[in-house]
């Protein structure tokens, strides 16, 4: 990961604490959990050994994601690109009836070495449930498939699901350097007051296979 990308990661991680589960959700964004600890996995985060096999440990070249599939929780969604908002916070997908997940474009593309980051909503205001409404139900070993613009697919296996208080968002665990291709899925959850959610749900996954 380049120094520039690392700086952007850190900024975005901190931005999630400010905007990822706050008042702006009522205007443009949806949700992110607490029951501090792990949901559906042993251990407390990415320190568990991710199921990455040797022949894909060096990953794929860069190609942006176009579709995300998570069969275990009924997700099959196009993927849009997200950057930084004018105020320096991480962008999130718009609140819309055709809710989609979004790839944070300052992170590696899924399948590249490093932590690719994809965000999505739990709810989308008056439109109801969001694309990541069941993200916290994922369990260790379940499959996440990302189709890329170059026609290749990167398949990941979940190795941990964490539900953490916003104030304790693990910036380094989510955005920090790793020497293998990994994936982070982020949404909101936990107790809700008005349009605000108290916590973040974070899924950690490692690349398990690739296909053309």
TrEMBL record:
Residues 25-56 are annotated as: Disordered. Residues 25-37 have a biased composition (Basic and acidic residues). The keyword Hydrolase applies. The keyword Kinase does not apply. It comes from the Bacteria. SUPFAM superfamilies: Sortase. InterPro entries: Sortase (IPR005754), Sortase_dom-sf (IPR023365), Sortase_F (IPR042001). One of its GO terms (molecular function) is hydrolase activity. Keywords: Hydrolase. Pfam families: Sortase. Gene3D superfamilies: Sortase. This is Class F sortase. It comes from Streptomyces alkaliterrae.
């Amino acid at each position: 990961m380049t120094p520039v990308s690392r700086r952007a990661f850190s900024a975005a991680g901190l931005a999630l604490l400010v905007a990822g589960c706050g008042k702006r959700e009522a205007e443009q964004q949806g949700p992110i959990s607490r029951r501090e600890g792990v949901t559906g996995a042993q251990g407390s985060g990415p320190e568990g050994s991710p199921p990455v096999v040797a022949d894909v440990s060096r990953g794929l070249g860069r190609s942006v994601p176009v579709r995300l599939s998570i069969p275990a929780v009924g997700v099959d969604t196009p993927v849009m690109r997200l950057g930084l908002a004018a105020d320096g916070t991480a962008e999130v997908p718009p609140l819309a009836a055709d809710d989609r997940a979004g790839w944070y474009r300052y992170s590696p593309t899924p399948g590249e070495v490093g932590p690719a980051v994809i965000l999505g909503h739990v709810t989308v205001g008056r439109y109801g449930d969001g694309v990541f409404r069941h993200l916290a139900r994922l369990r260790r070993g379940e499959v996440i498939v990302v189709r890329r613009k170059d026609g290749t697919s990167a398949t990941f296996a979940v190795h941990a699901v964490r539900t953490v208080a916003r104030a304790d968002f693990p910036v380094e665990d989510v955005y920090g350097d790793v020497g293998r291709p990994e994936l982070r899925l982020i949404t909101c959850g936990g107790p809700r007051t008005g349009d605000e959610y108290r916590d973040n749900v974070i899924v950690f996954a490692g690349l398990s296979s690739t296909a053309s």
